[in-house]
TrEMBL record:
Belongs to the glycosyl hydrolase 1 family. PROSITE patterns: GLYCOSYL_HYDROL_F1_1 (PS00572). It comes from Streptomyces capitiformicae. This is Beta-glucosidase. InterPro entries: GH, Glyco_hydro_1, Glyco_hydro_1_AS, Glyco_hydro_1_beta-glucosidase. SUPFAM superfamilies: (Trans)glycosidases. Its EC number is 3.2.1.21. It comes from the Bacteria. GO terms for biological process: cellulose catabolic process.
Length: 406
């Protein structure tokens, strides 16, 4: 990162490394790992941006019921306080949760992510407890850190578009928008769930797990909002003989991550695709930034994830050329710049990801990195996109669409 001239690095703390059972005092060896990482980053002039939770739940907490159970909100607050006390004197940028939609709906609804459960009511309960845990986590961090520190959350909102302008398709957009976006930004930003979400899921639950005071807890003032974006979502009303939503880009399962939404059909959006099968569409990022500029006026925004997986190969000269990723970055950074010129307060952009890494259910089969990792030797080789991205980071301008290798 120092050689590339990058000035910030977003990384996640492993709850299990710090608190293996999710309870009790911290394991200092685990915290020391992160203390060393933070110190090394700062010594290189790189600003650390810490995410507390990126889906790795201590097994004992899942055995006790996981995110669908109420007790976990207090366990998360304790964990946030522990990490805030250990690192808050040197880390100024904090994120409570990364993509809580995935934790709730892919973990407990479709089961394509750990813990692999397939209960739509459990998914909704998990979403609510993630909202409450976020609020308690914000308060816990602020109770132990300097006031100068910034506390945020990283959501992965869907840019939901209708297949047509028919009333049925627009109703499908409303339903998915509530379940993808409003279920989190409603409580976190506005202190309430959308009433239309309650109506859409009334056949499953009466939401009695929402307790008095929960919305006030979830609706903590934030210093910034992180937005993760990869591809837009295209939906319509489902035909009567449809089997339910499946082509939503979130992995294959016989179970839907969208509770009570079998009347919605997901469609592949047109355009070039990445190795994940996701459409390359920078307009979705621009629209998302402008939407949240309206949703949360005055709240600074960060693009905390954006990037693409491609089938990268090392050539005979030991170089990795990835012109597709350069084109992807060029288009999406241009979309961010357009949003800024239209009044969006975007303070930063984090590429997903610095290095090829473990991609959850996909293991090591999908390469998102700007740096190529040889998994047999762990040797790291910057790809062409790394040099292109470094030039953009250093100059604040978009380099030309050429493959740079040094």
């Amino acid at each position: 990162m120092a050689e590339l001239g990058l000035n910030a690095y977003r990384f996640s703390i492993s709850w299990s490394r710090v608190q293996p059972t999710g309870r009790g005092p911290a394991v200092q060896k685990g915290l020391d790992f992160y203390r060393r990482l933070v110190d090394e980053l700062l010594s290189k002039g790189i600003k650390p941006a810490v995410t507390l939770y990126h889906w790795d739940l201590p097994q004992e907490l899942e055995d006790a019921g996981g995110w669908p159970e109420r007790d976990i909100v207090h366990r998360f607050a304790d964990y946030a306080r522990i990490v805030g006390e250990a690192l808050g004197d040197r880390v100024e940028q904090w994120i409570t949760l990364n993509e809580p939609w995935c934790s709730a709906f892919l973990g407990y609804g479709s089961g394509v992510h750990a813990p692999g459960r397939t209960d739509p009511v459990a998914a909704l309960r998990a979403a609510h407890h993630l909202n409450v845990a976020h609020g308690l986590g914000v308060s816990a961090l602020r109770s132990v850190m300097p006031a100068r520190n910034s506390v945020a959350v990283s959501l992965n909102p869907s840019m939901v578009r209708p297949f047509s302008d028919s009333p049925e398709d627009l109703a499908a957009v409303r339903k998915i928008d509530d379940m993808a976006n409003g279920v989190f930004h409603g409580p976190m930003l506005h202190g309430a769930y959308p009433e239309t979400l309650f109506a859409a899921t009334s056949s499953l639950t009466d939401w009695s797990f929402v307790l008095d005071g929960d919305m006030a807890i979830a609706n903590q003032p934030l210093d910034a909002l992180g937005l993760n974006y990869y591809s837009p979502t295209l939906v319509s009303a489902a035909a009567e003989d449809a089997a339910g939503p499946r082509a939503d880009g979130h992995g294959e399962s016989d179970h839907s991550p969208w509770p009570a939404a079998d009347d919605v059909m997901f469609h592949q959006t047109p355009g070039d695709r990445t190795e994940m099968g996701w459409t390359v569409d920078p307009t979705g990022l621009h629209e998302l930034i402008m939407r949240y500029t309206r949703e949360a006026p005055g709240l600074p925004l960060y693009v905390t994830e954006n990037g693409a997986a491609y089938d990268d190969k090392m050539d005979a000269d030991g170089r990795v050329h990835d012109p597709e990723r350069i084109a992807y970055l060029h288009g999406h950074l241009r979309a961010v710049r357009r949003a800024i010129t239209e009044g969006a307060d975007v303070r930063g952009y984090f590429l997903w990801s610095l290095m090829d890494n473990f991609e959850w259910a996909y293991g090591y089969g999908k390469r998102f990195g700007a740096v190529y990792v040889d998994y047999a030797t762990l040797a790291r080789t910057p790809k062409s996109s790394a040099y292109w991205y470094a030039q953009a980071a250093k100059t604040g301008a978009l380099p030309p669409l050429v493959t740079t290798t040094s």
